[in-house]
Amino acid sequence: MVDDIAVEDVSAWKSGLDDVFALVAGAFRTASVRWRARAYLTGLLAPIERLTKPRLAETMIGRALAAGVEAGWVAADSAYGRDGRFRAFLEARRIPYVVEVPVKQTVADLDGDRRVDTLVARAPDEAWHRVSAGPGVRGEREYDWAWATVPNFGGVPAGFARTLLARRSIEDPTDIAYYLCFHPDSIEREEIVRVAGARWAIEECFQAAKNECGLDHYQVRKWNGWYRHITMAMLGHAFLAVTAASDPKAHAGWEDSQSPRSVVSWR
């Protein structure tokens, strides 16, 4: 959304700072500090568009598509998956997705919206299939998966389907993750599971870069300093990743990072 603040309102706030400075003069003795305080307030109240994570993701995906990058799938966590506008953005461009959603997420059913956890709780035993989501440091990442087609009430494009996917832990059956999916209707279960698990590699990459290279250990206030820190941390992580992949001894020393954790027709 865009903040509806007039220029004169910002000016009034800036001039009002003089009264604040008079009260806390000891903290604002130099002109540079007063200037920075005014600049901060001006930026904070400026009538510029502030974008949420899903809106930023749409911008990034749009730029990639405009540059000719082909996207086979989009995988995302619940910060994006819960956003209906983000899912509609992908569907309008025929981009298949597997996005995690919170337990309170609802989907349309014949007699109204139903929570995904309610639907999954009613899945028969035969709906669950043990499938690997891909290899991990300790072997295959196996979970029990249930996959269902949800009713088509929202104009699904021809040749596509909307489905609900659930991932249940083998060790703890109460640990269940939920996903909304959009894809060509010919897609097989193993492919959907593979895409759901593909996001872990990205999360592990970020976690390793934070742990090993201090990706998030910056203390900067300006763009140039932040950009330099992030660039060097990413370069360092790339070096470590290549070394670990090419040197068995180096690879053995890496630590495993934390993994993230009706009328429907069960497949």
UniProtKB/TrEMBL annotation:
Q: Which domain of life is it from?
A: Bacteria
User: InterPro entries in the record, alphabetically?
Assistant: IS701-like, IS701-like_DDE_dom, RNaseH-like_sf
Q: Which residues form the Transposase IS701-like DDE domain?
A: 52-107
Q: Which NCBIfam families match?
A: transpos_IS701
Q: What is this protein called?
A: IS701 family transposase
The organism named in the record is: Glycomyces luteolus
